[in-house]
Design goal:
The structure is a homodimer of 121-residue chains. The first copy, chain A, has 121 residues and is mainly β. The first copy, chain A, has one helix at residues 38-47, and strands at 18-24, 30-36, 51-54, 59-62, 71-78, 85-91, 106-109, 112-115. Chain A is 8% helix and 37% strand. The longest helix of chain A has 10 residues, at 38-47.
Chain lengths: 121, 121
């Protein structure tokens, strides 16, 4: 399917990447932040399944491809500077590789840090 | 006040920065994403007012200092990789410089993009 939206119209960093925040579309919980390149933006819009760019593996990262913990795209939004994406998603299972629903399970304060979320069973 | 939490324990990029997502602590709305360095993390924790690092001005950016649209810090969280922050905030007025509540006011789809949010009056 041809996209009427041009992923090249976004602003990428010098590595060709744009940060993408995944938010649970029902609960509003922020699940994770990862990176996309133009190809992963296009694939995500075309397939309705969230695909990131893995900086460590330097390849397309089809979220949940091995774990089954896929993210269905409900809506993509871009910010005023066109250099950050917000993905409203339907998350299957945990978003985090630690098996927690969200990657943001550690609270940080002036007195130190503590975990606020258990792994899913 | 001495911090028991060491901002140097976070993972910064080659420019010494870490992305920080600001989320409205009451509504759950994602308001914006900006960047922090270790000094702005420390100042934010010490003062309870969110301070970013302005990449364009290359200086500490005390959110709302000129506009009055301050962000009070309710809670800071760090993700599993320690390379992204989530800030739960009490936002005064609009978070976006366009006077919209959130910077993510543009919806993107395969068929193009459209604005979903009006500036605040």
């Amino acid at each position: 399917m041809a996209l009427a939206f041009d992923p090249a119209s976004l602003t990428y960093d010098t590595a060709g990447l744009i940060p993408a925040i995944a938010q649970d579309e029902a609960s509003g919980e922020v699940l994770m932040m990862a990176w996309m390149n133009a190809a992963s933006v296009a694939e995500t819009l075309e397939t309705g399944r969230v695909t990131y760019w893995s900086r460590s593996r330097q390849e397309l990262w089809r979220k949940g491809e091995s774990s089954g913990h896929v993210q269905g795209l409900v809506e993509m939004r871009v910010d005023c500077d066109r250099d950050c994406l917000l993905l409203l998603v339907r998350q299957t299972g945990p978003a985090c590789h630690t098996n927690r629903r969200s990657c943001f399970y550690t609270s940080v304060g002036a007195q130190g840090e503590h975990e606020i979320m258990e792994p899913m069973v």
